[in-house]
C-alpha cells in the first residue's frame, strides 16, 4: 500500500527544516540509498538516476496514480504525468512537461516513461491504438539515430526535441508533432575518448543479414570503419545487444509506415557515411609546384559511387578540389580534403535525421477532427 507515512526522509523538500543546500543534498542522498529516487520541490519533481532497474513501474501503479492527486501518493514521475493528463481533460488546458538535467541524469528514460504513461491511460480503439504505437515507435527510432553511448551514459541524447501530442475530447492521442535541434554533427566524424558514435551505425553492422550487408557493401566488423574508432576503450555493448536493438529499430520503421524502398535508402545513407569516413588522402605535387592530393583507397570511392548512383569522377573531383570561380578549380591538400570528407559525412547524416523527423511528422499528422487540447 503506497503511503506518504512510509517515505524515507522528506518526500517534499519544502518540508525540510532548515532548508539549506546541505539539508537538501543530504535528504536526496538518504532517500537515494533506499531507492527512493523521486523527491518533490513543491510541484517540481527531482529524479536521481539509479543506474539500475527498480520495481517502480507497472500498469497497476499507473492506474493508482491516474486516480489520485500528486501529493496524495509518494513522489513519482507517474504523478507528474497524471497531473498533466488530468488537467488536460478536466480543465481543457494545454499542458507542458519539461525534462531537464545534465548528461546521464536520466532525461531520455524519464521522457520515455511519461510517454508510456500517456499511452497506457488513454483509449484502445483501433485508430487510437495505431497512433499510440506510432508515438512510441517514433521515440524508438529517434533514439537509434539521435542517441549514443558515452562514458557517463548508455543512451545519451545528442539532440534536443519537443514533442507535441494532440488529444481529443475523450483524452485519446490523435496526432503528434516533433520539433528538434539537429544532432551533434561533430560526433559523426570526431568521437570524444571512450565514446561511441550514434547507435544506428553499430545496430546496422551487427543486425543486418548477410544479404543486406552485401547490398550495402559493408563488412560486419566495427573495427573496419574509421568513424567508429576512438583512442580509448569504448563503453561495452555486445554484438547481440546491438543486433537485438536493430530488430527494434527496423520494426519501428515498419510500424511507422516507412516502405521497403525508404528503409533501404535510409540504410544506404548510413553505409555511405561509414564508407566515406574510410577514404584516405595522400599528398601529391602538381606540375606547377602546388600541393594536391589523391585518394589512396579508390575501391571505397567506387563502392560509394555505386551506392550514391553518382559518377566516380564527379565525386572524386568534389572531394579533392574546390571551385574558386566559374570554371576554375583549385586542388585541395590532403588535410583540406579530409576536412571536406568529414563535412560531407556530417551533412549527409544531419540531412537524413531531418528527413526522418519530417517523415515522422507527416505520419503523426491528425487524421480526423479533434478539440484544442494538447500535452507537450
TrEMBL record:
ATP binds at residues 101-108. Residues 8-376 form the Myosin motor domain. One of its GO terms (biological process) is actin filament-based movement. GO terms for molecular function: actin filament binding; ATP binding; microfilament motor activity. Keywords: Actin-binding, ATP-binding, Motor protein, Myosin, Nucleotide-binding. Gene3D superfamilies: Kinesin motor domain, Myosin VI head, motor domain, U50 subdomain. GO terms for cellular component: cytoplasm; microvillus; myosin complex; plasma membrane. Belongs to the TRAFAC class myosin-kinesin ATPase superfamily. Myosin family. This is Myosin motor domain-containing protein. It comes from Zophobas morio. The lineage of its organism: Eukaryota, Metazoa, Ecdysozoa, Arthropoda, Hexapoda.
Amino acid at each position: 500500500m503506497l503511503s506518504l507515512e512510509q517515505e524515507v526522509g522528506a518526500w517534499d523538500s519544502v518540508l525540510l527544516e532548515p532548508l539549506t543546500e546541505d539539508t537538501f543534498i543530504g535528504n536526496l542522498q538518504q532517500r537515494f540509498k533506499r531507492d527512493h529516487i523521486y523527491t518533490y520541490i513543491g510541484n517540481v519533481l527531482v529524479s536521481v538516476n539509479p543506474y539500475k532497474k527498480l520495481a517502480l513501474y507497472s500498469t497497476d501503479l499507473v492506474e493508482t496514480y491516474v486516480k489520485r492527486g500528486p501529493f496524495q501518493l509518494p513522489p513519482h514521475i507517474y504523478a507528474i504525468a497524471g497531473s498533466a493528463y488530468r488537467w488536460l481533460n478536466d480543465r481543457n488546458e494545454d499542458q507542458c512537461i519539461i525534462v531537464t538535467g545534465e548528461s546521464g541524469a536520466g532525461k531520455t528514460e524519464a521522457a520515455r516513461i511519461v510517454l508510456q504513461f500517456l499511452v497506457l491511460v488513454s483509449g484502445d480503439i483501433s485508430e487510437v491504438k495505431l497512433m499510440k504505437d506510432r508515438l512510441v515507435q517514433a521515440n524508438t527510432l529517434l533514439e537509434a539515430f539521435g542517441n549514443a553511448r558515452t562514458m557517463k551514459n548508455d543512451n545519451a541524447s545528442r539532440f534536443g526535441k519537443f514533442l507535441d501530442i494532440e488529444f481529443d475530447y475523450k483524452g485519446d492521442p490523435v496526432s503528434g508533432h516533433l520539433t528538434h535541434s539537429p544532432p551533434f554533427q561533430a560526433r559523426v566524424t570526431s568521437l570524444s575518448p571512450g565514446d561511441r558514435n550514434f547507435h544506428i551505425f553499430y545496430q546496422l553492422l551487427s543486425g543486418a543479414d548477410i544479404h543486406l550487408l552485401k547490398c550495402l557493401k559493408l563488412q560486419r566488423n566495427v573495427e573496419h570503419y574509421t568513424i567508429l574508432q576512438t583512442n580509448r576503450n569504448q563503453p561495452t555493448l555486445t554484438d547481440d545487444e546491438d543486433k537485438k536493438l536493430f530488430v527494434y529499430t527496423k520494426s519501428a520503421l515498419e510500424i511507422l509506415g516507412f516502405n521497403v524502398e525508404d528503409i533501404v535508402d535510409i540504410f544506404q545513407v548510413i553505409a555511405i557515411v561509414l564508407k566515406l569516413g574510410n577514404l584516405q588522402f595522400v599528398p601529391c605535387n602538381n606540375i606547377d609546384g602546388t600541393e594536391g592530393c589523391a585518394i589512396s583507397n579508390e575501391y571505397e570511392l567506387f563502392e560509394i559511387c555505386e551506392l550514391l548512383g553518382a559518377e566516380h569522377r564527379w565525386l572524386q573531383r568534389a572531394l579533392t578540389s574546390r571551385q574558386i570561380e566559374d570554371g576554375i578549380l583549385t586542388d585541395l591538400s590532403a588535410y583540406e580534403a579530409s576536412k571536406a570528407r568529414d563535412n560531407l559525412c556530417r551533412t549527409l547524416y544531419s540531412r537524413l535525421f531531418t528527413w526522418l523527423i519530417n517523415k515522422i511528422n507527416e505520419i503523426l499528422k491528425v487524421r480526423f477532427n479533434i478539440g484544442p487540447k494538447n500535452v507537450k
